[in-house]
Amino acid sequence: MTSDEVQAMAEVATDPAVVWSAVTGISMKDCSEFVRMVNALVLDCLPHLPPRSYSFVVDGAQGEEALSLPVIMKAITMEKPVIRVDSGLRLIRLSDEGLTMKDVQRRTRTEQTIEVLCQGSYLTYCVAGHVVREGDLASNASHMPVASRFRRPIAEFESLLNDNLATSFHNERRLRYWHNRKKRILLAKPDKTEVIFQRELKAWLEEHVIDQIRVIAETRGLGQDPTDITVITAAGDVVIEIKWLGVNASGTTYKEPRITEGVRQVAIYLDNDGRLTKGYVVCYDARPHEVHLNESKWEASAMHPLCDDPRILFLESETASEKATA
Amino acid sequence: MMSAVDVAGRSRDVMLALHFAAQSGGTISRIRLQKFVYLLDCIARLYDVLPSSVTHRTYHNGPYDATIQNAVDVLVFRGFVASEFRKPRTFTYQLTQAGGDVVGLWLETDAFARRASAARDLATALEQVGWSSIVKLVYAEPTYRTRSGVGFGQALVVDDVTTNSARVMWATISDALGVGATFALHPAAVVYAFLRVLKTIASRSPTPEHDDDI
User: Fold this and answer.
1) ipTM above 0.95, yes or no
2) CB contact, 8 Å: B124 with chain A?
3) Distance, in angstroms, between B59 CA and closest chain A CA?
4) Which helix (DSSP H) or strand (DSSP E) does residue A237 occupy?
């Protein structure tokens, strides 16, 4: 056989619609349409879904409801990420079956069917126990997305904060917050000082919280409390209050009592919203190091049972050379 | 020398070709008829059908079997097929009412069930890859590709397993598609895959210079 014949055959043999049609006898037209619909649905839903895996597996039964974003969200939030569908991509049922590649291969081999494993925009097509094609829909990349070592569940909040501090704050790597680094004066424009830290932490949590459904900042209106950040998970919602300590460029100064203010605010949020299952107070400390060490207390009586001890994060301002010559 | 049996066999192929082509939107000219029946011979083994006792041979406009033209002329004479002249110099064919009735009777019985399945799946696959590409598909088919360079009149044995033939190609495709399958593959998908492969090869080859509508 010539090389172009071999190459042409390899292209066809990795078309999931062709393989699925050959294995099951479902018409090529229907198989191709299914693959097209899956790709279109995943791309449409991509901006709205949390970074969680789910899959579509074609069942022999007849479905009813057309698949849509709410159905996929429901599958993810209910921890039933295996979405059984018919060949027309209509929902049959949601299932809590396993979602490892081994599970997918075993399932498709046993049922002689096709399953599409979706990890963000990275799709893996498995037919009759074998991976036929995998790749990134959005970028045509053929490599698996690499798991970030910073991805953690929200329950590891302390580690999430430390990762963020080490990665983004060190030497103002990802954000600027010093108006005058040597005098330890924080920026106050164009954004308010608190917004600088709130925006950074929200972005970090959006990127790295594994079990999030959504991360919301500053809910307002309709009687909602103006929480700084709320992380919504299947196990319940988590509220995070952001404060800063020290001096900013507008002359505003916050000292130790600011910590207790944050604690009280979180207690109110936790009392008012039954969906909240945990509260955190995070204070970004621009005060001198001595003050940070000696004046970082809060009123224990103001603490809500569901609120963790406040995290008071010292903001480094000395460079390595400055520290060495000190 | 062609026999009455050969012509009868090809008459069956012509009528099946015209029936399923009409269902899948194909217009059959003289050249397309030759090409369709040639591809039908290529995939016959996939349906456990013995290939025709007469073979196509290499010729000016691709694989050519005189028995096919003979058969369609007989069918036109007998009123089962209607022909229409198309400028500048070709004919198109379609079944008449009588011809359609005959094919309908065949399809109700098992008489030519496998051959009919092959013709149906081939027509469906051609509809999907495009009827207009049928000439290029045949030119990309490995048996013809190999033999056409030798000269005119070369016999095209499409199911020869000892050479790079159509049969070897679709058997390889079938093996690749069937990895993991616990039941026999459905031939319609293999036929489609076979045509897709030919289309890909054709897209990378020089375009044949002759006019399809001859």
Assistant:
1) no
2) yes
3) 23
4) strand A236-248
Per residue in B51-97, pLDDT tens?
777 789 988 888 999 999 999 999 999 999 999 988 777 889 999 99
Looking at the complex, report in whole angstroms how far the Cα of residue A23 sits from the nearest Cα belonging to chain B.
5
Q: How many residues does chain B have?
A: 214
**Which phi and psi angles does A133 have, rounded to 5°?**
-155, 145
Q: Are B90 and B214 in contact (CB under 8 A)?
A: yes
- DSSP-H helix ranges across B64-165: 66-78, 97-108, 113-129, 134-140, 142-148
Give the span between the Cα atoms of A183 and A317, in whole angstroms.
9
Instruction: Tell the residue number behind the tokens 């095209």, with chain if given.
Output: B156
Measured distance CA(B159)–CA(B168) in Å, rounded: 7
Of B128, B178, B201, the CB nearest to A5: B201
Question: Reading across the β-sheet that carries B90-95, which strands appear in turn?
Answer: B28-29, B90-95, B81-86
Structure tokens at A33: 């349409």
Beta-carbon-side half-sphere exposure of residue B67 (alpha carbons within 13 Å) = 21
Token pair belonging to A74: 């429901």
Smallest CA–CA distance from A31 into chain B, residue: B189
- β-pairing, A276-285 vs A236-248, is parallel
Mutate to test the interface with A, among B165, B195, B200 (most CBs of A within 10 A): B200
Q: Are A28 and B125 in contact (CB under 8 A)?
A: yes
Distance CA A317, CA A186 (A): 11
What pTM, to 2 d.p., does this model score? 0.69
CB pairs under 8 A between A and B: 95
Please list, in sequence order, all residues whose beta carbon lies within 8 angstroms of the beta carbon of residue A215, skipping any fewer than 6 positions away.
Answer: A202, A205, A206, A209, A229, A230, A231, A232
